[in-house]
TrEMBL record:
It is found in: Membrane. It comes from Eutrema salsugineum (Saltwater cress). GO terms for molecular function: glycosyltransferase activity. It is a single-pass type II membrane protein. Keywords: Glycoprotein, Glycosyltransferase, Membrane, Transferase, Transmembrane, Transmembrane helix. It comes from the Eukaryota. This is Uncharacterized protein. The chain crosses the membrane at residues 36-58. GO terms for cellular component: membrane. The keyword Glycoprotein applies.
Amino acid sequence: MKVMVMEMEEGVKDNAASTPKSRLTNQSRALLSMRLLQILLFFLVLALGISVVGIHMIKFLKIQYLAPVAPTTLISMYDHGTVTLESFIRPPLNVWHTLNDTELLWRASMEPRRNVYPFKRFPKLAFMFLTKGPLPFAPLWEMFFKGHEGLYSIYVHALPNYKPDFPRSSVFYRRYIPSQAVSWGEMSMCDAERRLLANALLDISNEWFVLLSESCIPLRGFSFVYSYVSGSRYSFMGCADEEGPDGRGRYRNGMEPEITLSQWRKGSQWFEINRKLAVEIVQDTTYYPKFKEFCKPPCYVDEHYFPTMLSIKHRIFLANRTLTWTDWSRGGAHPATFGKADITETFLQKLPGAKACLYNDQKSHVCYLFARKFAPSALEPLLQLAPKILGL
């Protein structure tokens, strides 16, 4: 009995001794399960966070880069599947588009950096007409352009509410660009000129850019004009350092440090420049704000902005003269205007005078290719005399 009791007591003791170990093992297992659960929850929360961030990043990238763009005439040429070289070099079939000025200037500032073209390029003269609306001398210009297709482009900037009605046969048919209102002597005038340049730059074949008004006429035939411009080593823009109230007197100290008084220049509004300088004008964001803020009448921005900017950066490429003859002998804010009674053979022969100038650093008596300012009544006698006197 004692043995049995002792065995029973020993068994009880053994059971009693093993109970704490069992509890310890169970607690460890519970803690381990809890730890695994915490780790799983951590990774679950982490994965959820990464998913949320990823979704926001995808949305952001879509907004930044994948948002659909409203169709314009500029991108419509690429809607044919395969992108070819022609799709980049072909000019828009219609100069009308839906780009605002910011988009247009940005697009026009894109230029190839290589000088060699991978296709046969025929350099063209871009004729840019800055008008209020009608072109009273359109028949004379039609005569001027006739027979020279492929060597010129035409762009017309008129007031926004003007509706041109040229027939399909006219060189001016659908050549009016999207425009904005223009005020004489204010920055909106240069905005219009930059708008013309930007539209003309969209045609990769346009190499030279001539700014004209509705009151301008040609003084020479197209072939002569093309040879004269294309053969020049310089662009034709005045950049004179003029003393007095109409020159340096228009400068404002607020233009510093971008523009100093010694850099201030003046020139004719009517210019001819090459493609390199045209790109400089449309991409400018340095000088434009200064002129817009500080050059207001009696500072006429169209006489100072381009001459000053190009003189600072590219003086050696400027001939420092205009190709458009104007009579300022009568004084005042506007040049003399010539009407029907003024148009005679003698007048046209002596129109630009015999004043000598420099052409490619050599003396020349051919200084002007265009003239202004002519009233609409001058059209009839001009059409009669143009073939004989102007060589059209």
